[in-house]
């Protein structure tokens, strides 16, 4: 009954943590493609090839449903995977839709036509590849009208977090927020469009100011997954144990993951 969670690196551990709290009885298979992180500076074909390779590996662990926790992969590869890669008995779900449903105050699975919403000015912080894909704006257009989105590509933040250099990560976040505010001085809401960014949520909030509502993904994705599995229990795979896989150095990745989650995490080679 295992579910998979995929990320280009360690950022998806924020999603895993939330899912494990929401669904404590479901084994979770995590794949971090640390050897190829970050994805945010790669082109769409490269991201697609790396993501499909990782998802295929996760199927070997008895997983039928994979959460693509990497926003860059969700933006650049997910639609193509759903159209031409996935067999009928497998599913991959992204992390944008739960976030947009929360922003637009729609219930899970609400497929009614787009409508006016409360929030009109939204700042999107994401990787360069996610920003260039315009996937967030495309998904938002299915659900809301009249929303102005200003996107800021946050180069360097993921690298700093993966390297454990949180001082550099904080400086970069503040610099990117300043750049966004020069384009949109008064955003009403801010989207943290990368699963690494919740680790810097307090810095984003401080730099943006208390009047800006910051939306982070982990808990929203966990709730959306619980809802999905309630409607599609057949998508629970045959796997029976939780596992952490990495394409990188297992010892190094384990040490960094243990720091992130503040509990011992042991990765094995994928």
From TrEMBL:
Keywords: Cell shape, Cell wall biogenesis/degradation, Isomerase, Peptidoglycan synthesis. InterPro entries: Asp/Glu/hydantoin_racemase, Asp/Glu_race, Asp/Glu_racemase_AS_1, Glu_race. GO terms for molecular function: glutamate racemase activity. Pathway: Cell wall biogenesis; peptidoglycan biosynthesis. It catalyses: L-glutamate = D-glutamate. Transmembrane segments: none annotated. One of its GO terms (biological process) is cell wall organization. Pfam families: Asp_Glu_race. The active site is at residues 70, 194. The keyword Cell wall biogenesis/degradation applies. Substrate binds at residues 7-8, 39-40, 71-72, 195-196. It comes from the Bacteria. Its EC number is 5.1.1.3. Belongs to the aspartate/glutamate racemases family. Provides the (R)-glutamate required for cell wall biosynthesis. This is Glutamate racemase. It comes from Donghicola tyrosinivorans. The gene is murI.
């Amino acid at each position: 009954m295992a579910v998979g969670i995929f990320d280009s690196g360690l950022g998806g551990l924020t999603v895993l943590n939330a899912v494990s709290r929401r669904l404590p009885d479901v084994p979770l298979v995590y794949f971090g493609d640390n050897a190829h992180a970050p994805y945010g500076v790669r082109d769409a074909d490269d991201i697609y090839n790396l993501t499909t390779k990782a998802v295929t590996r996760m199927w070997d662990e008895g997983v039928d449903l994979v959460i693509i926790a990497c926003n860059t992969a969700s933006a650049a590869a997910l639609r193509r995977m759903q159209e031409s890669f996935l067999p009928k008995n497998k599913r991959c779900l992204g992390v944008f839709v739960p976030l947009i449903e929360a922003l637009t105050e729609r219930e899970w699975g609400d497929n009614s036509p787009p409508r006016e919403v409360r929030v009109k000015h939204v700042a999107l912080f994401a990787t360069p590849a996610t920003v260039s894909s315009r996937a967030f704006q495309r998904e938002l257009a299915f659900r809301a009208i009249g929303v102005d989105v200003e996107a800021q590509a946050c180069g360097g933040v993921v690298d700093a977090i993966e390297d454990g250099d949180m001082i550099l990560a904080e400086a970069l976040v503040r610099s990117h927020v300043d750049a966004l505010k020069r384009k949109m001085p008064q955003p009403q809401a801010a989207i943290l469009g990368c699963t690494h960014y919740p680790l810097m949520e307090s810095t984003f909030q401080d730099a943006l100011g208390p009047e800006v509502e910051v939306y982070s993904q982990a808990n929203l994705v966990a709730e959306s997954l619980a809802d999905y599995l309630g409607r599609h229990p057949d998508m629970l795979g045959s796997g029976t144990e939780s596992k952490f896989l990495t394409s990188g150095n297992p010892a190094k990745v384990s040490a960094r993951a243990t720091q992130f989650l503040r509990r011992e995490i042991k990765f094995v080679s994928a």
